[in-house]
Write a structure and sequence with these properties.
The structure is a homodimer. Helix content of chain A is about 30%, strand content about 30%. Chain A is α/β, with parallel strands linked by helices. Chain A folds into 2 domains: about 160 residues, 3-Layer(aba) Sandwich (Rossmann fold); about 150 residues, 2-Layer Sandwich (Dihydrodipicolinate Reductase, domain 2), CATH 3.30.360. In chain A, helix 1 packs across helix 10 and helix 4 packs parallel to helix 5. The first copy, chain A, starts with a strand and ends in a 12-residue tail after the last strand. The model of chain A has no long low-confidence stretch (mean pLDDT about 95).
Chain lengths: ~325, ~325
Amino acid sequence: MKIKIAQMGLGPIGLATARLAATRSWAEVVAGIDLDPAKAGGDLGVLAGDPALAGRPVFRTLEECWKRRRVDLVLHTAVSRFVDALPALEQCAVRGVSVVSSCEELLFPAWREPRRAASLDRLCRCHGARIVGTGVNPGFVMEVLPLCLTGVCRAVRAIHVQRVVDASTRRGPLQLKIGSGLAPAEFERRFRAGESGHAGLQESLALLAHGLGWELTRVQETGRAVVADRDLQTAHVRVRRGQTCGLHQRAEGRCKGKLRLTLDLKMYLGAPDPHDACQIEGDPPLDLRLEGGVAGDPATVAALVNAAPRPMAAAPGLRLMSELAVPCLA
Amino acid sequence: MKIKIAQMGLGPIGLATARLAATRSWAEVVAGIDLDPAKAGGDLGVLAGDPALAGRPVFRTLEECWKRRRVDLVLHTAVSRFVDALPALEQCAVRGVSVVSSCEELLFPAWREPRRAASLDRLCRCHGARIVGTGVNPGFVMEVLPLCLTGVCRAVRAIHVQRVVDASTRRGPLQLKIGSGLAPAEFERRFRAGESGHAGLQESLALLAHGLGWELTRVQETGRAVVADRDLQTAHVRVRRGQTCGLHQRAEGRCKGKLRLTLDLKMYLGAPDPHDACQIEGDPPLDLRLEGGVAGDPATVAALVNAAPRPMAAAPGLRLMSELAVPCLA
């Protein structure tokens, strides 16, 4: 029995997700869904440039899709905020349709929206749907992988994660999201307003703490512009010397005054020595490094598709990646 | 509701496991079990040198224990071979008692014993027991951690894992198991006879292949003596120049002629630069290194105790680590 999948959100990541899902023997991509009137009514194969998806209709909403196609699972790549995803997630939940989503805040929705998360959880349980947020960051590098490491620790005092990404290797929207080309003060204003920066860092912190059974008593997040020391040009943006070329974002979690978790993200154009690293202060201590890091976009698409069979085997509800079986190629 | 635990196997690892389990709020260590007549009838607290375990009786078998103490889970640290563990595992299964075991072959028992594994699986399902094998190696470094990494890969062509252990930091029995002090030819004879060497390397390979959905068409395992280039002395063994001071063991897995998996283990007295590493040839490629490696004995004990709550939440049967929730500190 193949899992019948609808791809919701047909931007570059969504289309790449649909293409990858179409290669899997356990998956059958049956439809696309996108609110954009220029896409709805079209053919997913044409939009994705993939003959394997030809003949799959594109609907505006799951509601419209549901009248014509039965769906087991929605791959959701549309928004970063949980509240923005909620209407679509509810449409899925009430039909018993499970969701694997790249929505950053969905990694740990109870962090910002405990009531709405609890209510969506009830809806899922009531109708037999599973909803989970995942990806590479958030979703893997800063919490699932460190949690997995703690599986061989007798005790953990603190966890420190660093991620350095050369943003010039990433897609255009990401190069803009990190402030490329803005005056540093303008970037920092937008960061404080929640309009710029990496989404989901606090959710990573919250999932990590939750997995360890730690209650965070203080969480601080900072975001600073990284300033270009020379003119820079990528396929997507031009940055002059003195302008923002990316960000240095950091979240810290304390338990009763003690610093227990630090997540440190440098993502800027031309960042040298890209890598992911994690140090666990514990018994035994662990010191992990992923040389070169986890390449963002192909890995995000992979994380979504690989996670797809996982929630189908889990109990209904709003699920966390830490509750599902070890992620792996599927 | 605490998980009522009996510790079966009261060697150094078993006693350390009982001591660690006794520190967990979700666990209640209710008894020890060991066939050794010098231990049975005694007090687990005295044997373990831990007042927190005082008053817990030590029985010879689970059958004897069962007459006096209800047990939910057995932590089993007794033997390396699945067939040697089978009688005790069956005693657990028929009583609906779950097991987390350090038995190396239990990591993937169907590799050597598909019929006996299927029969134990049926017994577990019939009586509501879950049995799983875990540890650091096998159980984490060479398969669970690499599998977890593949969760962010679109495709995987091959996986290569290396583990370098300075055996002089490990317990005495392990220093002997790797051949310390033997003539190299004698070590290699014992390795071929299955009497020396690291147990479970083929099981790691099998679990890795299973997790990836790969069918191995050829598996080769080799074990060579590492020869001391000077006289060596640890707290447990004395090795003269020219004698065996450890091993270089390697397993390779091929699918239709193509080398897809290599597991390479160097474990010898004074091995320089201890570390664990894993390269995934895939999309994206991944290059992981754990500097210093995962310290064997404390981590093995931690892996067992941390895994304990996992199978309790899984469906009954003979389970694999790759099917359970992401391992983490518990």
